[in-house]
Amino acid sequence: MEQTRDIVDFELELYAAQVQGRSAGRLDAAAASGGPHTLARQPFCIGINDPLDMLPSMPGACATASGGLNPLVFALFRSWTDAASPHRQSIARGEAIFNTRQFVIDGVSGLNGAPGDPVRQPIQNGTCTVCHDTPGAGNHSVPMALNIGLSDASRRTPDLPLYTLRHRATGDTVQTTDPGRAMVTGKWKDIGKFKGPVLRALAARAPYFHNGSAATLADVIKLYDTRFQVRFTEQEKADLLAFLLSL
Question: Which pTM was predicted?
Answer without folding.
Answer: 0.91
